[in-house]
Give the backbone structure.
Amino acid sequence: MLMRTATSTEEDITNIKKQLGLDKSPPEQYWIFVRSLTRGDLGKSLTKRRPVTEMMGEALPKSLELGLSSFAVSMLASLLLGVLAARKRDGLLDNGVKFLAILGQAMPGFWVGIVAIFIFSVYWPLFPAGGTGSLACFVLPVFTLSFYLLPGMMRLIRSSMLDVLDTEYIKLARIKGLSERVVIWKHALRNALIAPLTTAGILFANLIAGEVIIETVFNWPGVGRLTVEGLVARDFPLVQGVTLMLAGLVLLVNLLVDVLYAYVDPQIRYQRS
Amino acid sequence: MARGERDNGSARRARIMMQVTFIVPVVILALFVLTAIFAPVIAPHLPTKTSMPHRLLPPFFVEGGSTAYLLGTDLVGRDILSRVLYGARISLSVSLLVIFITGAVGTIVGIIAGYMGGTTDTIIMRTTDASLAIPQILIALLLAVTLGPSFKTIVLALSILGWAPYARLIRGEALRLREADFVAQARIIGSSSLRTMIVHIFPNVVNPLIVIATMMVGLVILMEAALSYLGAGIPPTTPSWGGMVSDGRNLIDRAWWISFFPGLAIGLVVLSGNFLGDWIRDKLDPRLRQL
């Protein structure tokens, strides 16, 4: 129905229906879908006429490159800023960090990306505005995606750190005469990382949302852009495949987080047994 | 004595800051609402009127700009200022509707889960957790494409998972209130579960509800803009901020103003919403700080 044009005849429509398997009943269609799925076949893209799995196989590494590097950058930055901000509550740095978080949370990611392109690629042509050829191509997308992820992470680490710094064992560590650096970066930080871990699942969902938007802004040939392209072109097999994969990834990450949580925090293991 | 004075000084400064972080956002949000309502009166041009001789005009403060088109024009000569003013209508109506729907659903579900407890609570809370783990944008995109982009679709798409944060918060409150003496007394004099939930629990969760609803304004506006940016939101003929930013993406080397001003509008409104949310939280319910 969606591919119908003014010039298509009844015959064309029946032919296409047959070609796409739409002449069969919905349960039959579903059975065929599930059967091919077990063989790892997600069908062919309607617009590109290529197997969906092949297209996803090409896009996934690109998304991982962008996602992992942005995750690393924003994690490092939020650790540093979050901990430093918590160390002196309501100090100059703390307020600065809070301001940055508020700003980052208010600005739409796609707009930050476009403004970054304007400043660093049009006004001062320092970095390319798109493509994936060289390392320089990474700078703007990674910056934008990190900026998108940073506020949430930073707030979590800061508040968790504030909680931990209030506990008895930190007081004890200080009384023992440990240097402030050891207290903060070793004793406090390790415990402060546990609470944010519970929200890692939500963070991952956030990362996927960020990838979808930022890949579209920078023409990054990853899964996010593949999704949007498929959606705009109404390429159903492609969208089906990508959604299935992303849903699987979300499940996997949440499972991993649960396991990791029990591993990191022994209290949880004791509770269960 | 010296200490008392210092405390006084910093307390006064904090009070002034408190007032500033209240007044500025309220003024911006009031302007936003008024703009949305009176867009046809204020806008100097029709937002959809194209004018080929006036294509890609820069804003008035840039060389070559004209005061007839204060913020410049886009590729087909539509006035950016008028489109930004009209765009406020979409952002406002979508966010109000979505917040109303998600707030209502989340509150009902949350009160039931917290008050009933047991299996009901487990089922509802697991569903809530699952809803929080799904990337909202993905579901919204899927819906927008299967149902076709329209106002209704975008409201549905943002509501379908948006109730979860409300449910989680309200459930916690209800759980706490269930143990309160006044609830036990109500039960003793024969108040039914339904009546207890409506008459005794609900009025006591209104404060946290207002807090979280205000804090959600920004998020909803951002999501709507993102969907419109991706072409899955409001159909392109209607001016929306996200759609306008997207229009300017490929013209960024020639006409930065097409993307810049609508994005600035989004940022300002979301920023004000977040500040107001923080302010209301500190006033009504400082316990909710970690939200």
Remarks:
- Residues 85 and 94 of chain A are 4 Å apart (CA to CA).
- Chain A touches chain B at residues 102-103, 105-111, 114-115, 117-118, 122, 129, 159, 201-202, 204-206, 208-209, 212-213, 216-217, 227-228, 231-232, 234, 239, 243, 246-247, 250, 254 (CB under 8 Å).
